[in-house]
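Example record

The entry below shows one chain as it appears in the dataset: sequence first, then structure tokens.
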Amino acid sequence: MHKIFTGFFLYFIAFVFLESCARTHRPADSTKKHKVEFGIASYYANKFNGRKTASGEVFSQKKMTAAHNSLPFGTMIKVTNLRNNKSVVVKVNDRLHPNNKRVVDLSFAAAVKIGSVEAGLVRVKVEVVD
């Protein structure tokens, strides 16, 4: 009986120790890694100007912001137009509609910076900025 108790006790101590180590040495947040996506980008219609975003911020076409479905709010991303190689850094502060197949929606100001306004939809590379 004493051996069973000692074995259980050592197992319990090892489990608690390893669990404690796992908590303090978790891998870095996936948004901090150099995440890259490719896909289609568009920009917001004017009717959204002044409305609240999913993050609670008020949307402005003049700010450098974007909607993205999986990155946390506040994440800074670099969006590059693959046709002309122009880039812009924007902050994620909104979400796309869940059925939307686009990678990102940009504010008008951001769309102007990458030269995507006339085309409307452009192929882009999206990178998380450290």
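Notes for this example: Strands lie at 36-43, 65-67, 76-81, 87-94, 104-106, 122-128. Residues 67 and 96 are 6 Å apart (CA to CA).
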